Amino acid sequence: MIQPADKKLNWIVGITGASGSVYGVRLIEVLLQKGFNVHVVVSNAGWRVLHEELGWNITRREQALSEKFSDTAGSLIYHPVADIGATIASGSFQVEGMVIAPCSMGTLSGVAHGSSDNLMTRAADVMLKEGRPLVLVPRETPLHAIHLENMLKLARLGVKIIPAMPAFYFHPQRIEDLIDFQVGKLLDSLRIDHELFTRWQGGAAAAVKLQPDL
């Protein structure tokens, strides 16, 4: 597991226009609390969802991020999605991995087909070519065949596909509990230690005798 003491490590978090921007926001928050450097890329549609779902004032985008993630142990570095010359667009810049949460089907398709027409898809392409961890959080339903084929293609390339699917075995009491479960699963995939949810400890085995219908 990667421990918080590794403060100089860089991670990338992308937020697209799919519903569920709260997942990306919470992931950024936890990574910063642990003292990591977090490089943030938000698509134009992602900014709209941040406004629609979380009520963010996005008139001044960088300021909105600074206000949300102030007073943290780590460092937040914001990259406009059009800045194709940003540090994270190059494989020579060392990062530990990238998470796109949530990941729209459009962005997922772009990554699956090597389309690097913005910083989000370019940074993801760098993860693939450099063999670094890439995690996508698709948030769409229902899924049609093209969605599924793109996910299969990426999974075969080693990309972790972690859909936004809540669990209930730990008896969540609040929406925040479900969000933390999802973010915890993302941290698990990155090998970052956390205590965001109670892990399954195994249940007591009980023999169930089926009664015949009367």
TrEMBL record:
Residue positions binding FMN: 17-19, 43, 104-107, 139
One family name in Pfam for this protein: Flavoprotein
EC number, as in UniProt: 2.5.1.129
Alphabetical list of InterPro entries matching this protein: Flavin_trans-like, Flavoprotein, UbiX-like
Keywords, sorted A to Z: Flavoprotein, FMN, Lyase, Prenyltransferase, Transferase
Enzyme class: transferase
TM regions (residue ranges): none
One GO molecular-function entry: carboxy-lyase activity
Reaction(s) catalysed (UniProt annotation): dimethylallyl phosphate + FMNH2 = prenylated FMNH2 + phosphate
Residues the record lists as binding dimethylallyl phosphate: 169, 185
Residue ranges constituting the Flavoprotein domain according to the UniProt record: 10-189
Cited function: Flavin prenyltransferase that catalyzes the synthesis of the prenylated FMN cofactor (prenyl-FMN) for 4-hydroxy-3-polyprenylbenzoic acid decarboxylase UbiD. The prenyltransferase is metal-independent and links a dimethylallyl moiety from dimethylallyl monophosphate (DMAP) to the flavin N5 and C6 atoms of FMN.
Family assignment from sequence similarity: Belongs to the UbiX/PAD1 family.
UniProt protein name: Flavin prenyltransferase UbiX
Naturally occurring in which organism (per UniProt): Paenibacillus pini JCM 16418
Top-level taxonomy: Bacteria, Bacillati, Bacillota, Bacilli, Bacillales
